[in-house]
Amino acid sequence: MIKLKGYFTKTELTLWGLSVLLILTGFVCFDRVNYLTLIASLIGATSLIFIAKGNPVGQALTIVFSCLYGYISYQWQYYGEMITYLAMTAPMAFVALVSWLRHPYNGNRSEVAVSKIGGREVVFMTALTVVVTAVFYFILKALNTASLTVSTVSVTTSFLAVYLTAKRSPFYALAYACNDIVLIVLWIIATVKDVSNISVVLCFVMFFANDIYGFINWNRMKHRQNTAAN
């Protein structure tokens, strides 16, 4: 069980609070209709603060967020996002959940043991990413996906992010930050057609801030864990 009292730092609570506030503000000012988008955004923001702590709860919430976001993407014919989150991000989040639960730090299931990937695995990851990107490009093209180029880049960054997450590497956060930038661009395009989508843009702006914090905190965790081991 997680003892929430004192579990999150003031910085983390402030970041989560600002994320929720911005998401709610965007919904009230520009949407007021798509409650599913609001729910998905709030779940996503909450998952990130747990992931930044290396807590498996974040992966469980990511699975829920992926399913909701996949459906939202389907509504806007962003088939790349739909397929990426339903067929890749959600399953990989499950794999990451299992991996994190199997590798707790010092038996503490609220914090995963940070890992490091070697040179050979980097080469393998890069090659696999190229293959996944190429395959998805032709699938998305066949489906007449809106914003094909941006959607394809999103697949690339998403795959790197979920792969690194499953491997318990701090660099997962940088990959997700890159993906956030791609998604901000993608939903800005959608906002041109429907201003209500600005709430989704604001959601990923906050995701970007959370992922940058996640990278910083995971490096702190890595240093602390290595210091304790030595």
Summarize it:
The chain has 230 residues and is mainly alpha-helical.
Helix/strand layout:
Blueprint: H1 10-30, H2 35-52, H3 57-75, H4 79-102, E1 104-105, E2 108-112, H5 119-142, H6 148-166, H7 172-193, H8 198-229
Antiparallel strand pairs: 1-2
Descriptive report:
Helix content is 78%, strand content 3%. The protein has 230 residues and is mostly helical. The chain has a two-stranded antiparallel sheet with strand order 1-2. The protein is globular, with a radius of gyration of 17 Å. The model has no long low-confidence stretch (mean pLDDT 90).
Q: What would the principal axes of the Cα set say about the shape?
A: globular
Distance between the termini: 28 Å
Number of strands: 2
- Main β sheet profile: 2 strands, antiparallel
What order do the SSEs take from the amino end to the carboxyl end, as H and E?
HHHHEEHHHH
Secondary structure class reads mainly alpha
Taking all Cα atoms into account, the compactness measure Rg is 17 Å
Q: Give unreliable regions as ranges.
A: none
Percent of residues in helical segments? over 70%
Q: pLDDT average, as an integer?
A: 90
In DSSP terms (H or I, runs of 4 or more residues), the helix count works out at: 8
Strand content: under 5%
Going across the biggest sheet, name each strand in turn.
Answer: 1-2
Key attributes of the depicted protein:
8 helices; mainly alpha; 230 residues; single chain; two-stranded antiparallel sheet
